[in-house]
Write a structure and sequence with these properties.
Blueprint: E1 23-26, H1 46-57, H2 63-78, H3 81-95, H4 101-110, E2 123-125, H5 134-156, E3 162-165, E4 168-169, E5 181-184, E6 191-194, E7 204-209, E8 212-217, H6 228-241, H7 258-268, H8 272-283, E9 287-291, H9 299-312, E10 329-334, E11 339-343, H10 350-364, E12 381-382, H11 389-408, E13 409-416, H12 421-426, H13 431-447, E14 453-458, E15 467-471, H14 475-484, H15 491-513, H16 519-531, H17 543-548, E16 553-557, E17 565-567, E18 576-582, E19 587-594, H18 602-623
Parallel strand pairs: 7-9, 9-10, 14-16, 16-18
Antiparallel strand pairs: 1-3, 2-11, 2-17, 3-4, 5-6, 7-8, 8-12, 10-11, 13-19, 14-15, 18-19
Helix pairs in contact: 1-2, 3-16, 5-6, 5-10, 13-14, 13-18, 14-15, 15-18
Length: 628
């Protein structure tokens, strides 16, 4: 996934030809050595960004609004304000290793006060397992832990294979941020702490079962990781020690609005025992959530229900209290065979998570490890919490708010089985552009209008690069979706418009990954004006800017070898979150919306997407024979 969730409240010329962007891996020198040679993130030219900004607005605002914005942009360009901010940004780029990364971390994540559950933390559904009892659950969890620890060896030894995009090495820094890290709430702004960076690296994970947290040391005294058998035995001890279900779900506090959690956090850690328990969770390498079985549903509903469980745990009656949502990595293993993870988004985007998933799944498919002599291991330490009346009140409030969130989130997973990326490839079309165009067609058919649509693009070609946004809605995509709804249009013309739309998307993707998109540049200029305490330029107060940053479609592609489904919540109250994994013969698409919005419906949109994909294949078959 060029993974990225653009949730901030702020939120060289056009290339002649775009070669396909291919992600590959090689194993050269130690993977952090190449970091020093990575280029810095460029600052695009002001004129280019302004021109591309106006082009992005054309299909989503009225002609009157666009004309007004043109005047504001011209004034911004020629009145000296834009040029002054541009020069300031270029100075910042020269002085820092990445002019954007700190601003982006703050504005998109740490300043955001919405709950991390549903609003910013993505979930991943792994293929359904066939165990349906605690022994199967424990065995699977033990193998999973062993797989992650095997992956950790590459992190610790700095021997991760370096990824390349179109032959250029990518920044690997995010891989070193996902283990032993945790978000910490503050009253107005959060922080992220990585405990792997220090003299004493953590050697334990946290395991939570029946809302009770345990410290599980995963290394022997000689620094070798515990074997699968040893891990299984330790998990059994944890399971047997946490049979009571009447414990207070302390983890539910982490699902709150960040300001509310910040205050509750300070209440909680006033007590010394609580503070030590919280620190043990924060310092752990990762967390494993051993979930209770969820209510049975039909096979058709299963994926959607599990996706919701990964995002929020299913509510306080089920597993929402069986989490510590601030933890960067939480692997979830249910007694009924459901499994996946949820991750706190601020330290990293999707690609490192997907790479880790693919690695661990492959590791777990190996034959059972050789059994080692069983060394007696101590009992995992149960973390104690003293629940004062104040903490109890905070927990009750968090329960109520979590249940409201759970009831409000509409989740639909579409397992599109009719074809996969093979069809687009047969017709020499970009598979990603093909799916994005189908989303445009589905939305237009439902609402008779286009909307601001963002797709994540990775900036990892640059040192400490995070993401920028591909502006998917274009004049070309508007013409195509209109032609598909116009009975007077011939298929030959529709096909030409489809091909042109996908080509435009390829160009926009190429520009974005090469640091020439518009969103982060506009954000940087705005942040600079705020830091300089000057008045914010008029273009940021304009209706068009608000429309452009109200993304009714927040989309992302997850390119995983594992047949998994990634999901995340919508960016805006009346929008959709859409994440898709295009396999060769099928496409997994997760769609979310909010039930509190009468205009949106995840199930209806999923049906519209399915129809759009089928109609686009029919168009290809009718108008263009496949090229071998």
């Amino acid at each position: 996934m060029l993974g990225v969730f653009v949730r901030a409240a702020l939120r060289p010329g056009m290339v002649k030809q775009c070669r396909p962007i291919r992600l590959t891996t090689r194993i050269p020198e130690r993977s952090l050595v190449h970091q020093e040679g990575l280029p810095k993130l460029p600052v695009p030219s002001l004129k280019q960004t302004c021109e591309r900004y106006l082009a992005a607005l054309e299909p989503i605002v009225s002609e009157e609004e666009l004309e007004h914005t043109r005047k504001l942009v011209e004034e911004f360009l020629k009145g000296g304000v834009g040029e002054r901010l541009q020069k300031g940004l270029e100075r910042r780029a020269r002085k820092t290793e990445n002019w954007l990364s700190e601003w982006w971390m703050q504005s998109a994540y740490l300043d955001c006060r919405m709950p991390v559950a549903v609003y910013t933390s993505p979930g991943v559904v792994l293929p359904r397992m066939h165990f349906q009892d605690r022994q199967g659950q424990m065995r699977f969890a033990a193998k999973l832990i062993a797989g992650v620890l095997d992956f950790k060896k590459m992190i610790d030894g700095e021997t991760l294979p370096v990824e390349y995009l179109s032959g250029k090495p990518l920044c690997m820094d995010q891989y070193y941020q996902i283990l032993s890290s945790c978000r910490i709430p503050g009253p107005k702004r959060d922080t992220v702490v990585n405990h792997a960076i220090g003299k004493i690296a953590p050697t334990h994970i946290t395991v939570v079962h029946n809302f009770q947290f345990f410290v599980l040391d995963v290394y022997n005294s000689d620094d070798t990781p515990l074997t699968v058998d040893q891990l299984y035995m330790q998990l059994e001890k944890i399971w047997n020690s946490s049979l009571q279900t009447n414990k207070e779900p302390i983890g539910i506090l982490t699902s709150q609005h960040r300001n509310t959690w910040g205050k509750a956090y300070n209440n909680l850690i006033k007590d010394k025992t609580n503070k030590e328990s919280v620190r043990a969770i924060q310092k752990s390498i990762f967390t494993v959530c051993l979930d209770a079985p969820m209510p049975r549903v039909s096979d058709e509903m299963y994926q959607s229900r599990v996706a919701a469980q990964m995002l929020h745990g299913g509510g306080t009656r089920w597993n929402s209290g069986n989490r510590w949502f601030d933890k960067t990595l939480q692997f979830i293993v249910g007694e009924d065979g459901t499994c996946g993870l949820v991750y706190e988004h601020s330290p990293a985007e999707g690609p490192p998570i997907v790479f880790l998933i693919d690695y661990v799944v492959k590791y777990m498919q190996k034959t059972e490890m050789v059994r080692s002599p069983m060394v007696p291991l101590g009992m995992p330490q149960k973390l104690r919490f003293n629940i004062t009346p104040e903490v109890k009140r905070d927990i009750e409030r968090a329960k109520q708010n979590m249940n409201i969130m759970v009831h409000d989130l509409d989740v639909k997973v579409l397992m599109f089985s009719h074809y996969g990326k093979n069809v687009a490839k047969q017709h020499k079309l970009s598979p990603d552009g093909f799916v994005q165009t189908a989303l445009q067609l589905a939305y237009y058919r439902m609402y008779d209008a286009c909307c601001s649509t963002i797709e994540t693009a990775s900036l990892r070609m640059f040192k400490y690069g995070r993401t920028d946004a591909i502006r998917v809605t274009s004049v070309d995509s508007l013409k195509f979706v209109q032609a598909m709804q116009d009975p007077s249009k011939q298929n030959a013309e529709r096909l030409q418009l489809l091909q042109k739309t996908i080509k435009t998307h390829q160009v926009n993707t190429y520009n974005a990954v090469h640091g020439q998109a518009i969103d982060r540049h506009l954000l940087g200029l705005k942040m600079l004006s705020i830091e300089d305490l000057t008045s914010i330029p008029e273009i940021y107060m304009d209706t068009s800017y608000a429309v452009a940053h109200h993304s009714n479609l927040l989309t992302s592609q997850v390119s995983s070898k594992t047949d998994c489904v990634m999901c995340f919540g919508p960016m805006v109250p009346d929008g959709y979150g859409v994440c898709y994994n295009s396999m060769d013969e099928h496409i997994n698409i997760a769609i979310t919306a909010f039930n509190s919005c009468e205009e949106t419906n995840a199930g209806r949109f999923a049906r519209a997407v399915e129809d759009a994909l089928l109609d686009m294949r029919t168009l290809l078959e009718d108008a263009a024979p496949a090229k071998n």
